[in-house]
Amino acid sequence: MPASPRRDILFFAVLPAPVAAVRIAQWADGLRNQYGLRGRRRPTELLHVTLNPVGAYLDLPSDVLSAAIEVGSSVEAAPFEVTFDRVSSFKGTGRHPLVLRCSHGIAELMTLQKILGAAMRSIGLGPGNRSGFTPHVTLLYDRQSVPESGIDKPITWMVREFVLVLSLYGLSEHVHCARWPLRG
Fold first, then answer.
1. Per-residue DSSP letters for 20-89?
2. Which of 106, 98, 108 has the alpha carbon at shortest distance from 149?
3. What is the rounded CA–CA span in Å between residue 160 and residue 172?
4. Residue 150, class by beta-carbon neighbours within 10 Å (0-12 exposed, 13-18 middle, 19+ buried)?
């Protein structure tokens, strides 16, 4: 049986502020060295917190993109501050995602995720809310697991917008299809 073709993934996300993204990348490099990890660090420009997936597509249908833009345009939320201050590995099959986890701003991220999920469900777009949502930034994937620990200098930024991202499979490239400011 032939392998199923890989698909591009459309999702809503929060991006770290540019200064925070650079600090996250530096922290990931330090963790690679500290734990002897071999996984390649995610490129700085791909760092994000996934809020809600829309779907996976061989060729993104224009009606799905339009519906996702409609969903994003309907969201109203105020800007908020987040702090990422812990690192750990999630369980994976073969390769464990090494992630940066959030302690401050988690309620606001979860609220934004729920608002988006409700808007998605209201127009029949994608799965809506994900169960077990754990806000995180994926740093790399590695066969070795890293125990949860705090980081010396937490990484904080103001979330002022969210984006609709199309992740192009196999290209390590994200296309930002739309972005919306948080107001309030």
1. HHHHHHHHHHHHHHHHT--SPPPPGGG--EEEEEEEEESS--HHHHHHHHHHHHH-----EEEEEEEEEE
2. 98
3. 25
4. exposed
Class level of CATH domain 8-83+105-133+159-181 = alpha beta
* Two tokens, residue 100: 């940066």
pLDDT tens profile 25-36? 998 998 899 889
Under a CB-based contact definition with an 8 Å cutoff, are residues 10 and 169 in contact? no
User: C-alpha distances in angstroms, 11 versus 73, 104, 106, 162?
Assistant: 14, 23, 19, 11
User: What's the pLDDT tens digit per position in 105-117?
Assistant: 999 999 999 999 9
Looking at every residue in the chain, the average pLDDT score rounds to: 91
* pLDDT range class, residue 68, cuts 50, 70, 90: very high
Pair 175, 165: CB distance under 8 Å: yes
| DSSP annotation string for 97-126 | EEEEEEEESHHHHHHHHHHHHHHHHHTT-S
What burial class does residue 38 get, using C-beta atoms within 10 Å of its C-beta: 0-12 exposed, 13-18 middle, 19+ buried? exposed
User: What's at 12, amino acid-wise?
Assistant: F
